[in-house]
Amino acid sequence: MLTDRQMMILRMIVDNYVISAEPVGSRTISKQTDLGLSAATIRNEMADLEELGYLEQPHASAGRIPSQMGYRFYVDHLLMGDTRLSGQEITRIKSLFTERIGEMERVAQQTALFLSNLTQYTAVVLGPQVYDTTLKNLQLVALNDHTAVLLMVASSGQVYNRTVSMPEGVSLREMESLVRILNARLSGTPMYRIRSRALEEITHEVARHMRDYEEAVHLLDQVVTWLESDKEGKVYLGGATNMLLQPEFRDVHKAQPVLTWLERHHDVMEALRSDESTLQLQVRIGGENDVQSLHDCSLVTATYTIGGLPVGVIGLIGPTRMDYARVIPLLGHLSKGLSDLLTKFYVN
Amino acid sequence: MLTDRQMMILRMIVDNYVISAEPVGSRTISKQTDLGLSAATIRNEMADLEELGYLEQPHASAGRIPSQMGYRFYVDHLLMGDTRLSGQEITRIKSLFTERIGEMERVAQQTALFLSNLTQYTAVVLGPQVYDTTLKNLQLVALNDHTAVLLMVASSGQVYNRTVSMPEGVSLREMESLVRILNARLSGTPMYRIRSRALEEITHEVARHMRDYEEAVHLLDQVVTWLESDKEGKVYLGGATNMLLQPEFRDVHKAQPVLTWLERHHDVMEALRSDESTLQLQVRIGGENDVQSLHDCSLVTATYTIGGLPVGVIGLIGPTRMDYARVIPLLGHLSKGLSDLLTKFYVN
DNA sequence: TGTTAGCACTCGATCGCATCGAGTGCTAAC
DNA sequence: GTTAGCACTCGATGCGATCGAGTGCTAACA
Questions:
Q1: Cα B295 from Cα B282, distance rounded (Å)
Q2: Could you give the strand order of the β-sheet that contains A235-238, starting from the edge strand earlier in sequence?
Q3: Which of A154, A252, B45, B192 gives the lowest tally of CB atoms within 10 Å of its CB?
Q4: Strands annotated E in B234-280
Q5: How many other C-beta atoms are found inside a 10 Å radius of the C-beta of residue B169?
Q6: Which of left, alpha, beta for A20 (phi over 0: left; psi -120 to 50: alpha)?
Q7: Which structural domain, as residue segments, surrounds residue B109?
Q8: Are residues B107 and B245 in the same domain?
Q9: Cα-only R_g, chain A
Q10: Which of 137-176 (B) contact A at CB < 8 A?
Q11: Which of A228, A260, A292 lies at the terminal end of a domain, its last residue?
Q12: CA–C1' distance B335–C7 (Å)?
């Protein structure tokens, strides 16, 4: 176990390194501390901390930097109740969510921008994806003789749309009655059960309204498949290029993998979804990330909820040398605000 | 005016530099040409071309690179009918647009990815924005007692949605009749005329169906404002990080402004919209770009159309040392394919 | 036993300097 | 008009000297 003094030194080293991005020397700590310890004493402690695995030395004559384990200890034990957000910042966060909700799309995007602007890191927001959502309504709007738009509204308020071209031999009227039947029979059905219910209960009824049985079944199948298909939430990025501001990514070859990974929204989603748990806040430091490209990064995520159910994730990606003391409470407040807003709207 | 030989040399220099990204020397050209000219002769011609402004010398003892003017001449006069796409590539482009259209969103995104993968540059796609589009249909789907989703389908097939919270004192039924009236009176109206027509013709009728006149007018105003509000097309990027692959952007400080600019979708849109003209293809080389951040880049854009009307833009951004000979016909084919697909769907 | 001053040592960063070589411009000859 | 020859330029590369921040170790001190 670490002594109080060691903890204090570790903490100071992290705090310093987070700001300066340069190895921290014993003299620096000695001057900042008010315990009146000399650099030599600090040096001894630092050597011990290194031996214990909390610190590293880039090269023999340099200062120390925190190891992954050092950051982990810092986050887990040295940050208790240490909120470095100014009161001003907290009110600013709150005010972000007072306005109308409008389009969820916009809320997510703005949250990402807000986060990245405030932190100089890269923000990631996973749009809400409600698992126990039900089908609310289906609409067909004809554009012309052979094309129509199929609209689907989920109970969570999400809207999905798809342009369909009418199959040969199916009239608009037939299509409309198909949709009417689906609406009557399926609204209220959980999304994941749509397919089975549709095939069990409705095939025959649909077929009755259409001349071509084969075509009817085929069409129904297509529509239903789409309805149930994975409507994976979207990924919203903010400040991806902030990555380039960080000294550790000044070299293009360091930055490239991360930025490229960020471009593959599907992978990003997968990585973040896995953190979407009842655990409100997750911190993954360096190698703790499963994703290879993030081994030099830290990922801090918070889950937001609707009516207590986790539906999405907001997060920040930066170098392992991240300002955890600011980032963690920031994400906490923000996810709280977002959850409250969404709950107010969509629960009742 | 340039002699044939000068043109040929200029052309070879551009072709070489595009590939190697290194200044081209006289010996290189001399060996590649089959006219049997010595390096010295080439050198004389190169000196002339430089004096005329078509070439530049990074420093005294280096080879030549094309100037902005050189690229311009190359694009305008040396590229006639020079299609360097393989037959395979052309069929691949065509096959990209044979499938169902599904969601326009996806088509745009995939086009961007396809373009960036094929070229190693950054692709930009401006989602379709139809100016003379009309209102097709309006739908209100209630989610619960105080929240509903308002859907709008435009004649171009685009779908816009917005979550609205019911104002105090307005019942769902009132809201529904408002939407019914709007549908009856406004469908078929050009988007830009919605506001004036609504205010002129409908206010009274709406008020008749609602208890609170003030509230009715206010609500109508809100909805109508949203309907007419600028539904600006979205921007889809592909391969933004490809920028970092280019030697000229190996230095983070060179790449950062461009990537940051690309993140501001609104600015990107503005820049590309201005190229959306009857002119099918636009090439903006280096300083020809109005945007300061693109002064070291070239932007090649092609307009795509629906039924002959320009509605969107696809483009590629790369270093001025861009492979115009490939990029230009590529964008040509792609915009053609996209136009055909969209026209087939949405015109009738 | 913990703390500290002193000191030799390490090692990256920076600078100057020599070298190398691709490529040029110029001149004179063909 | 073309070309061979040649001196010259200038970035790139490599090497060694120097500098300095920071260390580890030792010995003295409280």
A1: 16
A2: A235-238, A122-126, A309-319, A297-306, A281-285
A3: B192
A4: 235-238
A5: 11
A6: alpha
A7: 87-129+232-346
A8: yes
A9: 27
A10: 137, 139, 141, 143-147, 149, 151, 153, 155, 157, 159, 161-163, 165
A11: A228
A12: 74
B241–A250 CB contact, under 8 Å:
no
Task: Tell if the CB–CB gap between A263 and B102 is shorter than 8 Å.
Answer: no
Helix, strand, coil % in chain A, rounded to nearest 5: 50, 20, 30
Same domain membership, residue A153 and residue A122: no
Q: Which nucleotide is nearest to A42 (CA to C1')?
A: C3
Same domain, B243 and B341: yes
What CATH number corresponds to the domain at position B140? 3.30.390
Q: Compute the nearest-CA separation of A194 from chain B (Å).
A: 19
**Residue linked to tokens 């619960």:** B144
Same domain for B147 and B221, yes or no, is yes
Query: Residues for chain B: how many in total?
Result: 348
Burial class (CB in 10 A: 0-12, 13-18, 19+), A76: exposed
Report CA-CA distances (Å) from A245 to A209, B67, B287, B292: 62, 31, 26, 20
The answer to whether residue A275 sits within a structural domain is: yes
Q: Which residues make beta-bridge pairs with A165?
A: A147
Maximum CA pair distance of chain A? 92
Q: How far is CA A241 from CA A198, A255, A262, in A?
A: 46, 9, 11
**What is the pairing mode between strands B297-306 and B122-126?**
unpaired
Distance from CA of A164 to the nearest CA of B (A): 6
Q: Does residue B82 lie in a domain region?
A: no
The answer on A174 and A37 residing in a single domain is no
Q: Quick check: is B50 in a domain? A: yes
Indicate if A239 and A337 belong to the same structural domain: yes
Token couple for B220? 């109508």
Q: Does B103 touch chain A (CB under 8 A)?
A: yes
Q: How many domains does chain A have?
A: 3
B244: left (phi over 0), alpha (psi -120 to 50) or beta: alpha
Which among A191, A207, A228 is the end of a domain?
A228
Provide the shortest C-alpha distance from residue A100 to chain B (in Å).
Answer: 8
User: Does residue A204 form part of some domain?
Assistant: yes
* Per-residue model confidence as pLDDT tens for chain B (348 residues): 899 999 999 999 999 999 999 999 999 999 998 788 999 999 999 999 999 999 999 998 899 999 999 999 999 999 987 888 888 999 999 888 876 667 788 899 999 999 999 999 999 999 888 777 889 999 999 988 888 999 999 888 888 998 888 877 788 888 888 899 899 999 999 888 888 888 788 887 877 877 777 877 888 888 888 887 767 788 999 999 999 999 999 989 999 999 999 999 999 999 998 877 767 899 999 999 999 999 999 999 999 998 888 989 999 999 999 999 999 999 999 999 999 998 888 876
**Chain A residues in contact with B161 (beta carbon < 8 A):** 103, 159
**Whether A119 contacts B119, CB under 8 Å:** no
Of B250, B31, B239, B231, nearest to B116 (Cα)? B239
Query: Domain of A276: which CATH number?
Result: 3.30.450.40
Q: What would the two tokens of residue B68 be?
A: 């902005």
CB contact (8 A) between residue B252 and residue A255: yes
**Alpha-carbon distances, residue A340 vs A347, B13, B326 (angstroms):** 10, 62, 52
Q: Please tell me if residue B128 touches chain A, with a CB cutoff of 8 Å.
A: no
Q: What is the CATH number of the domain that holds B55?
A: 1.10.10.10
Residues A124 and A254 in one domain: yes
Q: How far apart (Å, rounded) are the C-alpha atoms in residues B149 and B155?
A: 20
Could you give phi then psi for residue A321, rounded to 5 degrees?
-75, 75
Residues B115 and B238 in one domain: yes
Chain A residues with CB inside 8 Å of B147's CB? 157, 345-346, 348
- Rounded, the Å distance between the CA of B15 and C1' of C28 is 34
Whose CA is closest to A329, among A93, A168, A110, A97? A93
Token pair of A218 as six digits: 């085929």
